[in-house]
Amino acid sequence: MAKTLLILRHAKSSWAEADKADKDRALKAKGISDIVNTARAIAPMVQGLDLIITSSANRAVHTAILFAETIGFPHNKIRIEPMVYHADERELVEMIKSLPDEYKSVMVVGHNPTLTYLVNTFVANRIHELPTSGLVGVKFDINSWIELTAEKVCSVFQSFDW
């Protein structure tokens, strides 16, 4: 049995509205097109996705929804998780380890630098920075999410240039 963790950084966001709180920033037009392109490119590799967990920040929620719509994923399987917004990589790992084992493939949509650190927790070839709309998929040879460790990684794929 295997489990797949998809790690997706939110799409490029706008800084145009200086009066908006960080959490409320919207996506730029380029960010919207980038995430749609990422989703199209990776769609065949994410068939069987069971759950998307996203930060509650506007740009992350919008990214998750656009990704889901592009691959035909149901909106009712997107979970907005406020803790993802400020979480560090250890907290994200603990959240993932607590998932029900019925989920075989889960995506986390969030922010840097945490997502870069999360990727580097599991991959042998460390990355400097997960770019906006960048996605890394990590397959684990595990039966239960509680077993999630770097030693159990069996393959890695990505949708961005390393």
What does it look like?
The protein starts with a strand and ends with a strand. Helix 3 crosses helix 4. It is globular, with a radius of gyration of 15 Å. The mean pLDDT is 95. It has 162 residues and is α/β, with parallel strands linked by helices. It has a six-stranded mixed beta sheet, sandwiched between helices.
List the helices and strands and how they pair.
Elements: E1 3-9, H1 29-42, E2 51-54, H2 58-71, E3 78-80, H3 89-97, E4 105-110, H4 114-122, E5 135-140, E6 153-158
Parallel strand pairs: 1-4, 2-3, 2-4
Antiparallel strand pairs: 1-5, 5-6
Helix pairs in contact: 1-2, 3-4
CA(first)-CA(last) distance: 28 Å
- Contiguous runs where pLDDT drops below 50 for at least 5 residues: none
Oligomer: single chain
Indicate the radius of gyration in whole angstroms.
15 Å
Please identify the structural class as seen in this structure.
Answer: alpha/beta
The percent range for helix content is 25-40%
The overall pLDDT average reads 95
Tell me the number of strands: 6
Major sheet details = 6 strands, mixed
- The SSE string, one letter per element, is EHEHEHEHEE
The neighbouring-strand order within the major sheet is 3-2-4-1-5-6
Overall 3D form: globular
How large is the share of residues in beta strands?
15-25%
Number of helices: 4
